[in-house]
Predict the 3D structure of the following.
Amino acid sequence: MSASVLLVDDERFARTVYSDYLRAAGYDVEVAPDAEAALALLKQRRFDLLLTDVILPGSSGLDLLGIAKDLDPNLEVVVITALDKVGPAVRAMKSGASDYLVKPVAPEGLQLAVQRCLSTRALLDENKSLRAHLKLFEAGQRIAATLDRDTLVPVALSAVAGSCKSAGAALFERAVGGEWVLSGSHGIDYPAAVELLRLCRPALETLGETPVRVEILPGELTELGPRAIVLPVTDEGRVVGGMAVLVAGELDGPGAEAGAFLCRNLGLALRNLGRLKQVEHLAYLDDLTHLYNTRYLDLALLREMEGGRPFTVLFMDLDRFKLVNDEHGHLAGSRLLVEVARVLRSCVRDDDVLVRYGGDEYVMLLAGIDSGGGLKVAERIRRAIEDHRFLSREGSRVRITCSIGLASYPEHAQSKAEILDLADRAMYRGKRSSRNVVYMASRDLPPVPAGDREA
């Protein structure tokens, strides 16, 4: 596409000669005899270059320059002046003109000035485009590298809304059951974001790799835009979310491309977060039983104490477990420990925390349950272990019992170390008495002797 030039000169001969030469050089040329006609053309269409005489009838070329720059700050301007009017041309340069020519203007000089100005404009446009792409790339990198969800969602929402020139945006993700849920919003309050989810839900259900437009009826979020564009958030071709951006009109090509690019980086970040969560989850699991380990128990106890609700800790130890290893072998003993974990899961709620404390010891954190409720759960566990026949698949049908110590917060203890110690002492008291018993903590229980755990 050829560059467009607006030539303004009150001399018909100059207009004809200059315009014919520029057209022959491949430029799209419009001509005007004065500033008034030139301004009418500038308001009608966009030009790459304004070529104007300094002295014009009715208004000077300097006045035209100022108004033209207000209309289009990126417009390149070359002024033409007589030999004795160089002073105004210099002032024009200070006002934003790129070059000036002295009459009479040779065709070669005219072409050189026009080429120089248009090359400068192209270079500036290219630099501007490169800066915009670099800024977009940096925003995408920042999103993709964020491994904290509380930071990731606001950063991504702000970046996508900005690239799409949107007054507001909301991120929706699929929950475990397949239902779409609100993950966060930018520039929209919570009730409006929930309403936006309702409006966009049909589009989300059919969302593929291309954006979907959602028309918003009068009275529905109209203060933020008459329509929403739902951009897909994908992970390796799989739609994992949708970013709804509210726009006043159609989303232009560059805005849509930038939004799509940022949403792809958001999909990558969400995948990385999922992998990180899996790794962190594995760090808190016991390798053998896949119950939680003591690292997680420490976090769970701290969380419950900060919450202020009562809770109960059960400390359980299998009675005479060493005999299982001696009679059936350590491999069978390990299988029995895994089977005990399955029995324990069946005795407690999903919100309760089951921990393999070490060896044949288990700890249960019963959230929101006081000592009275804890005794009932502990007795249910004791009976379940006593009645179960372990290793039946291996043809052994092993019977085993357990001793359980119980301590409650805040009834018996107010710190993590203290509540575990008291529950452990209560369990040891049960093992020292009859075994296969539930024993409640009290402060007069003696500590467990070092090295004396098996009984």
User: Anything to note?
Assistant: DSSP finds 13 helices and 15 strands in the chain.
